[in-house]
Design brief:
90 residues, mainly alpha, Non-ribosomal Peptide Synthetase Peptidyl Carrier Protein, Chain A, 3 helices
Length: 90
Protein backbone atom coordinates (compact mmCIF):
# COMPACT_ATOMS: atom_id res chain seq x y z
CA UNK A 1 0.00 0.00 0.00
CA UNK A 2 1.24 3.49 -0.81
CA UNK A 3 2.73 5.42 2.13
CA UNK A 4 0.36 8.38 1.70
CA UNK A 5 -2.68 6.08 1.86
CA UNK A 6 -1.28 4.33 4.96
CA UNK A 7 -0.69 7.68 6.67
CA UNK A 8 -4.23 8.85 5.83
CA UNK A 9 -5.71 5.64 7.22
CA UNK A 10 -3.64 6.03 10.35
CA UNK A 11 -4.66 9.68 10.85
CA UNK A 12 -8.30 8.77 10.33
CA UNK A 13 -8.08 5.91 12.82
CA UNK A 14 -6.09 7.66 15.58
CA UNK A 15 -8.22 10.81 15.39
CA UNK A 16 -11.49 8.83 15.04
CA UNK A 17 -12.48 10.91 12.00
CA UNK A 18 -14.85 8.23 10.68
CA UNK A 19 -13.59 8.45 7.09
CA UNK A 20 -13.10 12.23 6.89
CA UNK A 21 -9.32 11.78 7.07
CA UNK A 22 -9.36 9.70 3.90
CA UNK A 23 -10.49 12.80 1.98
CA UNK A 24 -7.43 14.81 3.09
CA UNK A 25 -4.92 15.83 0.43
CA UNK A 26 -1.22 16.69 0.71
CA UNK A 27 -2.10 20.37 1.20
CA UNK A 28 -4.63 19.74 3.99
CA UNK A 29 -3.45 21.60 7.11
CA UNK A 30 -3.20 19.53 10.29
CA UNK A 31 -1.91 21.31 13.42
CA UNK A 32 -4.30 24.08 14.37
CA UNK A 33 -6.77 23.12 11.64
CA UNK A 34 -8.02 19.68 12.72
CA UNK A 35 -9.62 20.07 16.16
CA UNK A 36 -9.08 16.40 17.00
CA UNK A 37 -5.30 16.82 16.57
CA UNK A 38 -4.21 17.90 20.04
CA UNK A 39 -0.90 17.14 21.74
CA UNK A 40 -2.05 13.70 22.91
CA UNK A 41 -3.24 12.84 19.40
CA UNK A 42 0.17 13.84 18.01
CA UNK A 43 1.77 11.35 20.40
CA UNK A 44 -0.78 8.74 19.31
CA UNK A 45 0.05 9.34 15.64
CA UNK A 46 3.79 9.14 16.32
CA UNK A 47 3.32 5.84 18.17
CA UNK A 48 1.10 4.47 15.41
CA UNK A 49 3.64 5.52 12.73
CA UNK A 50 6.42 3.75 14.62
CA UNK A 51 4.33 0.60 14.85
CA UNK A 52 3.01 0.72 11.28
CA UNK A 53 6.35 1.40 9.61
CA UNK A 54 8.58 -0.39 12.13
CA UNK A 55 10.92 2.51 12.90
CA UNK A 56 11.71 4.71 15.89
CA UNK A 57 11.11 8.47 15.82
CA UNK A 58 13.42 10.46 18.08
CA UNK A 59 12.11 13.52 19.93
CA UNK A 60 14.62 15.67 18.03
CA UNK A 61 13.24 14.51 14.67
CA UNK A 62 9.76 15.98 15.14
CA UNK A 63 8.68 19.61 15.22
CA UNK A 64 5.60 21.64 14.38
CA UNK A 65 6.49 21.70 10.69
CA UNK A 66 6.25 17.90 10.54
CA UNK A 67 2.54 18.13 11.37
CA UNK A 68 1.89 21.33 9.41
CA UNK A 69 0.12 19.53 6.53
CA UNK A 70 -0.66 15.99 5.46
CA UNK A 71 2.08 16.38 2.83
CA UNK A 72 4.73 17.39 5.36
CA UNK A 73 3.85 14.39 7.53
CA UNK A 74 3.89 12.02 4.54
CA UNK A 75 7.25 13.45 3.42
CA UNK A 76 8.66 12.86 6.90
CA UNK A 77 7.42 9.26 6.90
CA UNK A 78 8.83 8.64 3.39
CA UNK A 79 12.26 9.99 4.38
CA UNK A 80 12.28 8.04 7.65
CA UNK A 81 11.09 4.85 5.94
CA UNK A 82 13.67 5.15 3.14
CA UNK A 83 16.58 5.78 5.53
CA UNK A 84 15.44 2.87 7.73
CA UNK A 85 15.28 0.52 4.73
CA UNK A 86 18.72 1.62 3.56
CA UNK A 87 20.23 0.93 6.99
CA UNK A 88 18.47 -2.43 7.22
CA UNK A 89 19.81 -3.55 3.83
CA UNK A 90 23.46 -3.01 4.85
Amino acid sequence: MEIEKQVLLLIDDVLALEGRGLEFTASTPLLGAVPELDSMAVIGIINALEEQFDFIIGDDEIDGETFETVGSLVDFVRQKHTSFEQRASR
